[in-house]
Amino acid sequence: MSLDRIRAHRAGRYLFGVAASVSTVAVLIPLRFLIEPLPAPPFLLTVIAVAWFVGLGPALVSVAVCAFAIDYWFIPPLYAVTTTWHEIASVVSFAMVGVVVAWLTATRRQVEDDRKALLARERAARASAEAANRAKDEFVAVLGHEFRNPLSAISTAVQLLDRVGKPDDTATSAREVIARQARNIARMVDDLMEVNRIAAGKIRLDPRPMDLAETVRRCVATLSGAGRTE
């Protein structure tokens, strides 16, 4: 069973903590003569491992199991529960250190898990934004292409009317308005195609002198052609 599946079940986490502690005791009892002067470090390593892999609660259970094991198998008299204050102080000291170590380790693991989750969300958000940006670019490209085709047809039709139409002032004015508005729409399409450059920070400005009087005359002509002037 993988650690992820164990961590997904509360009972599995606590069983892991107990099993790790019991396994440590079983391994260290034959080596008791080597660690009798300082039996705590191997047990603290077990507590750290349990806290890191399955959390604080199982680590506290591991502290309790290890404290009992130290008292029963490693502190003289062996195979007996502690009765003297000195022995009790040793076991309590180990338990207090074990609790602190378990809390620090579990907190560090939680911070690491939160960091990984935040990084995963950031990557997912970035991927979503990049996908949306690509979709936007494709939409703008298709839209620009679809606009250019009818605009080209309108411009061509106006040119043909100029050649075959009668020199009527009203018709000539209307054709000029159509041609001018077609050019305006073409410029707007070009501006729309500049979205990618703007998004990339590559804004290209093309400053030119402006004839205000001519601009006003064009606006009046446009409104006159649309029947909006009084």
How much of the residues is beta strand, in percent?
A: under 5%
What is the count of structural domains?
2
Number of distinct helices: 9
Gyration radius over CA: 41 Å
Subunit arrangement of the protein? single chain
Work out the helicity level.
Answer: over 70%
Shape: rod-shaped
CA-to-CA gap between the ends?
A: 85 Å
Query: Average pLDDT, to the nearest integer?
Result: 80
Please report the total strand number as a whole number.
0
- What structural class do helix, strand and pairing data support? mainly alpha
Q: Can you write the helix and strand succession as a string?
A: HHHHHHHHH
Main beta sheet: strand number and arrangement? none
**Low-pLDDT segments, ≥5 res:** none
Textual characterization of the structure:
This protein is mainly alpha-helical. It folds into 2 domains: 3-121, no CATH class; 128-202, Signal transduction histidine kinase, dimerisation/phosphotransfer (DHp) domain (Helix Hairpins). The protein contains 9 helices and no strands. Helix 2 (10-28) packs parallel to helix 5 (56-74), helix 5 packs antiparallel against helix 6 and helix 6 packs antiparallel against helix 7 (169-193). The chain is rod-shaped, with a radius of gyration of 41 Å. The model has no long low-confidence stretch (mean pLDDT 80).
